[in-house]
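Hi support team,

I'm opening this ticket because the web form for multi-chain structure prediction keeps timing out on my end. I have pasted the exact lines I submitted so you can reproduce it. The total is 628 residues across two entries, so I didn't expect it to be a heavy job. Is there a limit I'm missing, or should I split the entries? Thanks in advance, R.K.
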Amino acid sequence: MPESSKVPTLRFDSVSKIYKKTRRSAATAAVDDVSFTLPPGKALGLVGGSGSGKSTIAKLILGSEIPTSGSVHFGDLQVDALRRSARRGYHSKVQMVFQDPYGALNPVHTIEYALSRPLANFLGMTAAQARDRVYELLETVGLSPARQFAEKMPHQLSGGQRQRVVIARALACEPELIVADEPVSMLDVSMRADVLRLLAKLRAERGLSLLYITHDLLSARVVTDHLIVLHNGRIVETGETATVLQHPVDPYTIALLDAIPNPFAGADT
Amino acid sequence: MTAPIALDDAPRLERPTLMTARGVNVVYEPSAGLSRRKRTAGARIWAVRDVDLTLAEGEFVGLVGESGCGKSTLGYALTRLLRPPARLESGRIEFDGTDIATLSGEQLRAQRRGGFALVLQSGMNALNPVRTVEHHVGDVLRAHGKAGSAEVHRRARELMASVQLDDEVLGRFPHELSGGMRQRVAIALALALEPRMIVFDEPTTALDVIVQAAVMNTIKDLQRAKGFTAVLISHDLGVVLDATDRVLVMYGGRIVEDQPSGEMLRGPHHPYTEALLDCYADPRAEVINLGGIAGSPPDLSLPLLGCSFADRCEFAVDVCREVDPSLLPLGPGLAACHVRAPGPAAAQNSPESAGSTHA
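Hello R.K., no limit was hit. The queue was backed up. Here is the completed structure from your submission:
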């Protein structure tokens, strides 16, 4: 189990990402002067509506977008200045869980294959070495008997099971930071709680940091310690998750809370 | 048969009936509609099983359940939009007294013109990417011989206003619109022929919470103002309870509970509905205790033995695994549960053969 203290801090310093003007649209600041830190072993939620810049922040962390200004650091590494060769090592430390568990797994390969790719790519394991580790990963995310699941194709699994596979794949190379972009929004509500609890449990057990991106405040409340509310690329409110949600100050945060269908938000029931 | 009797016992709003479905079964045939070469030896899926329902004029009804429970398939059946490999295996669906299965040609077109309409989940897929919004509106109106070009333009502006979009949207292409705007356009197209019933299939699922709330408000306002019958299909019980008068909960191809929305929120009767409600909480609450439902939905290629929810139900008893529960009166509505709404089958543990008159 890696010590939390060894996990680097993720730091955004006045980061802006401006998409250039095109024939059809004006220049857009997807991320506008955003600064925050994600301390080791903590879970930070990024919440906001469509177009608030939350997914762009995920891309900036992964290095698939380069900031227009400002810098992104992961410990001593300056992510936006990484050379191609250094990216590879960085990507084994920072892993992504995507929204769509149907699109994130190659439909023509078995689950074992999907999970053994990062083991071969990042850790240089042979197929035989990888096999035991694949079973271990499947057990970790609650897919047992692991041998049976390893042989299955993605279409034979439910959405919740697929998302567990995607989480297992993210864990395969012992990452220090997981970026989860709406990991439960495509799952049935009845499956969400279990996947959220799994994420929270893995983070606590492995001491890794979690950046959780969502527009669903309830799930953010369940898995995160701190919350950043984004609107039009800017941070409008930040603080401890429970405090922000119970005593929201910014009108946009209040609007997000009010947009939750009444039956569950009303205190009068 | 006890089901229709149970339905008649249920309290109804004092409104004329618009649609009734009796004994509806929909199957997906693995080989239907495919070329010989592509046919596979898959199993038949019984997606909708013996569904009875009644929709009143002007009623706003929700249809809720997990992925694969048959809710969209039922929605397609009600609007005569089932396509191979799906097929109406048996049952009768009447819209305003006419069996919609027998409609064809001009009669079916007449029903689509002012009868029933469907709004799909993804606004992007429902719209033609190389046509402007105005072209879409014109297409609908002209296909049903409703208008000349001046009339189309006037009506198109009217429709945009009714879904709170600016006229300027008419000249735009679908990719130039946000998800919420596309969904509003899809709603406008459904309204174009002033239908008496609209089925909304997950109209806000792809949208973020704030846009979702705004689109749902538009749907609610339009329903109230125009008085059409609305069926809202969604996996999100929260959205449905907030918008509708009555909620039908589907599980494993069957309707397992049918209650007024307020009643369901105060106290769900079916264990499945109860478990679904436990999956929600107010993020502002002091303590969050989020529930889930362990296990997976039933395999719909297999015949039903007992209650389809029995394997995941914490209250299940022997009879639940042996006898399929019928929808019986419970509270102000109906529920299909041996434990909560014991019928003759649960009492005697025998197939339903009990007499129809018992007080």
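A quick check on our side: Confidence is low (pLDDT under 50) at residues 1-13, 349-359 of chain B. Let us know if the file doesn't open in your viewer.
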